[in-house]
Specification:
Layout: H1 4-26, H2 33-81, H3 87-170, H4 173-185, E1 191-198, E2 204-208, E3 214-215, H5 217-226, E4 238-241
Parallel strand pairs: 1-4
Antiparallel strand pairs: 1-2, 2-3
Helix pairs in contact: 1-3, 2-3
The structure holds zinc ion (ZN).
């Protein structure tokens, strides 16, 4: 494991592990993914419901206020009845009273509807909050367990970063630079196994395990016996021989 290809393979693995560990640290473990998604969705739904409930409570207060204003207005018209001076004024005030009464009826109905909506939403919110308590308790327990695990994952990340740093020192800079570009291009898969296919007539051909591009026999020998760093001419991935661990 002293040749360059082997070191590059170690670098590749450490890099992959580092990416996985860093992703894990930034999120949640796969084992609690389903619970995390369920918890997040229910919490978001509860927030939406709580907002609707708050809005319904405001609408209810507004509707009650409108009823109170209309009642006040009606009362004033009714008080004016005793002060009318003639038939014409009397007719006018009666018409005002009729209008006020019919307006009040509409507002009363709206207030009742607002009351029912506010109460029904408040009830639903209460019920879902109680049901959520259990989910929240399970989620908190899982989260606490994960929080306790995090320092060891963080330590692993630090260790991998040190490994990568020392491997960097053992590999030519241009190789590292090129390797990281290929990692970027292929979303992490920068190495391809050197594959061998037996030919029916005897002999074998070598090819890139990722794109199948044929590798010249003498190049395959270099990779297998000397651990030379070679890129596939087609996909540019770095080739490694089976058995390199
Ligand atoms: Zn290839």
């Amino acid at each position: 494991m002293n040749d360059l290809a082997s070191r590059l393979r170690l670098f590749d693995r450490a890099l992959a592990e580092l990416r996985a560990a860093s992703t894990l640290l930034a999120g949640v473990p796969e084992s609690m993914r389903a619970l995390h998604d369920e918890y997040s969705a229910e919490r978001a739904a509860l927030e939406t419901l709580a907002e609707a409930s708050r809005e319904a409570a405001v609408a209810r207060r507004d509707a009650d206020g409108a009823v109170a204003d209309a009642q006040e207005k009606l009362k004033k018209f009714q008080q004016q009845v005793s002060r009318v001076r003639n038939q014409r004024e009397y007719g006018a005030i009666l018409s005002e009273i009729d209008q006020a009464k019919s307006g009040l009826k509409t507002l009363d109905e709206a207030a009742l509807a607002a009351l029912e909506r506010a109460e029904s939403l408040a009830r639903e919110l209460d019920e879902r909050r109680s049901a959520f308590a259990d989910l929240e308790a399970r989620y908190s327990a899982e989260l606490a367990r994960w929080e306790a695990e995090k320092p060891s994952v963080a330590a692993k990340v630090a260790g991998l970063e040190r490994d990568l740093e020392s491997l960097r020192g053992e590999l030519p800079k241009p190789v590292i630079a090129q390797f990281l570009r290929i990692v970027e291009r292929y979303h992490g898969v920068a190495m391809a196994r050197l594959d061998r296919t037996e030919r029916p007539g005897g002999g074998a051909i070598w090819h890139c395990g990722c794109c199948n591009y044929q590798i010249r026999p003498q190049v395959a020998v270099e990779i297998r016996t000397k651990g030379t760093i070679v890129q596939c001419d087609n996909c540019r991935r770095f080739l490694f021989a089976e058995g390199e661990g």
